[in-house]
């Protein structure tokens, strides 16, 4: 029970955890705001779609095709044979991993189809195309 002495309420014995919880919530919010899902170093102008479903997971492989038609696997430039070899190695280690394809809006459609054909040959089932959101 709290006792009053000269109008001042004394606290019960124990630890007040409210400030600790406040600090933890602030740290959590800062962590969420500073973490991002972008791949650093590659600027790609994504085509727009009316709705998009986030497919990125921790083991997701990202294939990016820039406006010049250069192919990147997780921010590293690769040729199509190198891409196939690396994805086959990953499939041997982890048979079920998602792949996302990020193609610049200005890239020739044929280059994206070549990458999608390669993914079909490897028999990867979880393939997603990344788009930007439509403004408006």
Automatic annotation (TrEMBL):
GO terms for cellular component: plasma membrane. The chain crosses the membrane at residues 20-42. It is found in: Cell inner membrane; Cell membrane. InterPro entries: ExbD. GO terms for molecular function: transmembrane transporter activity. It is a single-pass type II membrane protein. One of its GO terms (biological process) is protein transport. The accessory proteins ExbB and ExbD seem to form a complex with TonB. This is Biopolymer transporter ExbD. It comes from Pseudothauera rhizosphaerae.
